[in-house]
Amino acid sequence: MAGTIKAIRGMKDILPPETGRWQLIEQVAREVFDLYGYQEMRLPLLERTELFARSIGADTDIVAKEMYTFADRHGESLTLRPEATAQVVRAVLENRLERGFWVKKYYTIGPMFRYERPQKGRYRQFHQINCEALGTDAPELDAEVIFLLVDILGRLKIEQVRLLINSLGCPECQVDFKARLSLFLAAKEGWCDDCRRRRDTNPLRVLDCKSQRCQELLRPAPMMRDCLCEACAGHYARVLELLGRAGVAFEEQPRLVRGLDYYTRTAFEVAAVGLGSQDAVAGGGRYNGLARDLGGPDLPGLGFAIGEDRLVEILPPDCGQGRQEKIFLAALGTAAREVALALLQELRQQGLAGEMDFDDRSLKAQMSLADRLGATYTVILGDQELAQGQATLRHMATGEQEQVPLPDLAPRLLKR
Ligand SMILES: [Zn+2]
Ligand SMILES: [Zn+2]
């Protein structure tokens, strides 16, 4: 006999009551985005493989090892999106949204896919809240984007976090840095196979190697901040100054590179204290050359992604538990159930949540059901009550009961 079918490894069902926490996070994020002038984009989960290969970079772990790539029925290579930034920029360019003088601000919420080794807090289908702002290189925009991220986390009462920040410079600074890094990498032995290859193709990517050994060897490596040109150094200093003035705490992290090729200048991460090695809950940065790399005009921009799966884990336990006030209607007999059903509809139309039993259970069984559903009040409707045009109203926490005439029930409950 065939067994039941299971979900794919690394992909999980998100079920109630946990879904309440997801809804809360997204609701807060939407409110904050709205305050900062961001609008939502809803984009396809599938894109041409080329989009990611060209933007994220062929030597990155994402493109080299982690994408879900397949040929469709016409042999076209498609990829389940591993991240959203390249896609948002693709959509901006394709729909000519970059036109006009104003900064363009978009957010998108949804699943991403990477074929990584599944472990606690890491899934092959994971979920992100993405923020992207395009149209200026001004450091004020960098500051505003970081304020927005801090604002979302603050409203969700995620307080045990560290904001790590670095500058990755412009392509000119990166030429200098790559040259120094290449010399350093060539002078040492012991790199993993990937890094030996990256030494020649893309030395920057050695910096985000996950091998412990490579990370040890990298300790005395040159730092990006020593290679910043005057303009990039000034931009970085201004971003830090603006964060400081706004009272946003940050730590400079000169080793922070982010594992994608398109980042320039500001790069940042938010790490949650106590999440262990997978402790980044959000990360982002500038990508001033990305639109041009994708065949578009010069369109500087920056953004971030919040890892929703991780955020759900560190959200305070009492968050997102949904509606507190709920009524249960315990009806005994067909006639009573009919009255109860009509009363429930009346209550719901007035915005009060309620439920009833449909299966003719005993009063005792219905009362225990009301308890398990967390009802604040139970309305008991039996033949005797109906005959008198009344119902019994029971306050579940105190056990107090009173007789209430049927027409008064809805107004009475709504007044609470
Ligand atoms: Zn520079
Ligand atoms: Zn390595």
Structure description:
By secondary structure, the protein is α+β, with helices and mostly antiparallel strands. The protein is built from 15 helices and 16 strands. It has helices spanning 18-35, 49-56, 61-66, 85-94, 139-155, 171-186, 193-201, 212-217, 230-245, 290-293, 308-314, 334-349, 363-372, 383-387, 406-415, and strands spanning 39-40, 46-48, 68-71, 77-80, 104-113, 125-134, 161-167, 251-252, 264-272, 280-286, 301-307, 327-331, 354-356, 377-381, 390-395, 401-405. An eight-stranded mixed beta sheet has the order 1-5-6-11-10-9-7-8. A five-stranded mixed beta sheet has the order 13-12-14-15-16, with helices on both faces. 36% of the residues are buried. The mean pLDDT is 93. The structure holds zinc ion (2 copies). One zinc ion binds at residues 169-170, 172-173, 228-229, 231-232.
Strand tally is 16
Instruction: Record the strand order, biggest sheet.
Output: 1-5-6-11-10-9-7-8
Distance between the termini: 55 Å
Ranges where pLDDT stays below 50 over 5 or more residues in a row are none
- The CATH class of the largest domain is identified as Alpha Beta
**Main pleated sheet:** 8 strands, mixed
Write the SSE topology:
Blueprint: H1 18-35, E1 39-40, E2 46-48, H2 49-56, H3 61-66, E3 68-71, E4 77-80, H4 85-94, E5 104-113, E6 125-134, H5 139-155, E7 161-167, H6 171-186, H7 193-201, H8 212-217, H9 230-245, E8 251-252, E9 264-272, E10 280-286, H10 290-293, E11 301-307, H11 308-314, E12 327-331, H12 334-349, E13 354-356, H13 363-372, E14 377-381, H14 383-387, E15 390-395, E16 401-405, H15 406-415
Parallel strand pairs: 1-5, 7-8, 12-13, 12-14
Antiparallel strand pairs: 2-4, 3-4, 5-6, 6-11, 7-9, 9-10, 10-11, 14-15, 15-16
Helix pairs in contact: 1-5, 5-9
